[in-house]
Amino acid sequence: MISTKFGYAIDPATRQVAGEADLSPAYIRQACEASLRRLDTGYIDLYLLHLRDYDLERAAEVRDTLESLVAEGKIRAYGWSTDDVERARFFAQGRHCTAVMHRLNVFMDAPDMLALCEEFDLASISRIPLAMGLLTGKFTAGTELPEEDRRREFWDIPDWLRDIERVERLRPLLTADGRSLVQAALGWIWARSECTVPVPGFRTVAQAEEDARALSWGPLKPAQMRQVEALLAAWQ
C-alpha cells in the first residue's frame, strides 16, 4: 500500500518549501507523474492533499482533478491531510475519498474528526501519534538534541516541558499490561476508533520493530482508557 502527498513545491537541494503553493490541475498532474516516477510504480493507492488550510472555495477543483486521476488509473483513492473538520467533510463527499490525515495522540484527541471518519467510513490516519517523540518517554527537561533537529525549540515552550512530566505520570497506566510506552500510545489510538491508522515515525530497525509489535497488543483495554481519560481530565 503506497501513500504520498502533494501540494508543496520542494527544492530538492535544500529540502525546503520553494515558492507559493500551486494546486492547479496541471500542477497536480505533474506532481502525480513525478511521484509515480520516483516511486517506480504504476499507480498510487492513496494520494493526500498536504495543504491543511487550503481555501475551501477552491477545493472543488482539486477534488475533481483527483477524481480524474482515479478514472485514469493514476491513483486509486485520495484524501486530505487537515485538522479542519469542515474541509475534511467537503472532501469526504467525493466518490473516491477514503481517508483524512489529522493530529491524534494521547495529548491531542480529535472526537469531531473521528466522528466524521466513522460517518463517511474514512480511514483516520493519525499524524504525530507519538506527539513528536514525547510519547516514547525518551525526553527529559534536560534533553539536548542535535542542532539540525527542529524540535530543539520545543524546550522553550512551557506546555512541552509540562507534558514531559505528564508522560511519566501516564506511563504506569499505559504500560500496566506489559506493553512499551510507544506500543501503548498506538494502542490508545486504536482504542479511540476502529477507523484509526496511526503512522509512527522511526529512525532505526529496532524502533520499526517496536512499532510493529504494537499490533500484537492491539487497542488498550476499556479500563485503561477510562483511567487515562480520568487523569487527562484532571489536568484540564
In brief, what are we looking at here?
The chain is an alpha/beta fold and 236 residues long.
Residue-averaged pLDDT: 92
Q: How much of the polypeptide forms β-strand, as a percent range?
A: 15-25%
Helix content: 40-55%
Shape: globular
Overall description:
This protein is an alpha/beta fold and 236 residues long. The chain has helices at residues 25-39, 59-71, 85-92, 111-120, 158-174, 181-192, 205-217, 222-234, and strands at 3-6, 10-11, 16-17, 44-49, 75-81, 97-103, 123-127, 196-198. A hairpin with a 4-residue loop joins strand 2 (10-11) and strand 3 (16-17). Helix 6 (181-192) packs across helix 7. It is globular and about 50 Å long. The model has no long low-confidence stretch (mean pLDDT 92).
SSE map:
Elements (H helix, E strand, L loop, with lengths): L2 E4 L3 E2 L4 E2 L7 H15 L4 E6 L9 H13 L3 E7 L3 H8 L4 E7 L7 H10 L2 E5 L30 H17 L6 H12 L3 E3 L6 H13 L4 H13 L2
Parallel strand pairs: 1-4, 4-5, 5-6, 6-7, 7-8
Antiparallel strand pairs: 2-3
Summary keywords:
single chain, 236 residues, alpha/beta, six-stranded parallel β-sheet, two-stranded antiparallel sheet, 8 helices, globular
